[in-house]
Amino acid sequence: MGEYVNKIYETRYFWSHLVRAELKNKFRRSKLGILWTFMNPLLLTALMSTVFGVVFKMTFSDYAPYVLSGLIVWDLVSASFIGGGYSIMTGEQYIRQFNHPIIIYTLKSALVSTITFIIAMAALTIWVLFTNPQNIIIGIVTLPLTVVLYFFLSWSVTTIAGFSNAKYRDYPQITALVIQAIWYVSPVFFKREMFSSSPLLEKAFYFNPITHILNLIRNPFLEGIMPSVSDYMFTIVSIVVVGLIAIAVNRKNKDKVIFYL
């Protein structure tokens, strides 16, 4: 394991170049460029908050930041599951020519997703700065640890997704359906009180890892309080479990992936 990690470090100039190249290519020939990462969640939040605010009878000022925080984190999660599935396949030309650790391609995708998340967080930060400026300090203080946790979660999920898609080409279609189902049973835009209609839904809300992953952002930025111990524990346990699966998947498939491509 130590030798493998060292190989990843030795190729740092290569995969960091891939990260920069993908970020540039992502906004190539766009008039607004990287600003779309900032504006897209804001525009989608305005739309969803207007529509669902009327349906659920919630005020725009209270509901919009809740939706915005959910969308920003959910974009990172869905990008890891769906976009991460192409992380190894897009590196096919390099994999066929060079003997690099395969996992650097999932690392590249996870870094791109995390950087995109950080840029999108500027939208929520500015929103909170104008509406609840007293929450900014605790939000900024807790953000670095949250970003680190999100990155390792994204890298683990992307690794599993990358190998799965390389081996099974039905992965994107199946995963898109699963992710859509998880979206509707997670508090991305549904508030907690919407899950309190039955004890079963309330338990599902509490034991859903997405709830606690979202709370790492929502508690400090929206509520002005530290994420709870259970929020950190659920998130860390999720990372450890998914990370161990990712290590096993990488160990089993890293020498065979060339045949999948």
Characterize the biggest β-sheet. Answer: none
Unreliable segments of 5+ consecutive residues: none
**How large a portion of the residues is in β-strands, by DSSP E?**
under 5%
Mean pLDDT: 87
Total number of strands: 0
Q: What can you tell me about this protein's structure?
A:
The protein is mainly alpha-helical and 261 residues long. It is 76% helix and 0% strand. The chain is built from 12 helices and no strands. It has helices at residues 2-10, 12-26, 35-55, 60-81, 92-95, 103-131, 136-167, 171-184, 199-207, 209-223, 229-253, 257-260. The longest helix has 32 residues, at 136-167. The chain is globular, with a radius of gyration of 19 Å.
What topology emerges from the helices and strands here?
Blueprint: H1 2-10, H2 12-26, H3 35-55, H4 60-81, H5 92-95, H6 103-131, H7 136-167, H8 171-184, H9 199-207, H10 209-223, H11 229-253, H12 257-260
Helix pairs in contact: 2-6, 3-4, 3-6, 4-6, 4-7, 4-10, 6-7, 7-10, 7-11, 10-11
Properties at a glance:
single chain, 261 residues, mainly alpha
Brief write-up:
The chain contains twelve helices and no strands. It has 261 residues and is mainly alpha-helical. The radius of gyration is 19 Å and the shape is globular.
